[in-house]
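Translate sequence into structure tokens.
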Amino acid sequence: MRDQVIVDGVSLAVAPGATVGLLGPNGSGKSSLLRLLAGLRPTTTGCVLLDGADISTLTRRVVARRLAVVDQESVTDADPTVRDVIALGRLPHRAPWSPESARDRTVVQEASVAMRTDHLLERRYASLSGGERQRVQIARALAQEPSELLLDEPTNHLDVRHQLELLELVVAAPTTTVMALHDLNLATSYCDEVVVLSGGRVVEAGPPQEVITEEVVHRVYGVRARVEQDEQGVHVRFLRS
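Result follows.
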């Protein structure tokens, strides 16, 4: 099988506390770039630095104490409660086979409150709706007490109201966040900066009001759009062919 380049020549520096959106059509490299940033996939050239240290030289426990990842879908064959799922975020901070500490219980409670899932703690995870599960997974990530948060399509399968609620909670979290998004209007509303990918390469990067233009939308997505700006930000309206 011939080798295929998935992400190529990407240089990305994320400022502490910023929310950065990765944009692009399916197959553009958003999820692959997130896996590289998380250290879940090795780079063939270049490196990923976490506070100046090459992430490939750090242990998984060290990385997990700093960086949390939420995939598009998380499934389990077990039947855990919501509390059990969120408590998984404490594993990087506990010695093997050690019992849950008072600190662990406090952090789980705080993470559940931050994601508005505290009323669900005793529910079975399998009984939750898609939006509830997504909030629980982000609460689990926050329980790691990370400084960096990586989210892969966090609004996938959610209705408009729950998309907005979820992103409000994400941007309020005390983390530096990089998330892959499909919806351009959500990205312009909630991201400090956006990175537009196509074919695994960066097309444009910067503040949404500078990056999201009619020309970029047409070049990357192959559709016509009207892009307007007002005091509330950038708005993309797609045009029929």
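Note: The first helix runs from residue 30 to 38.
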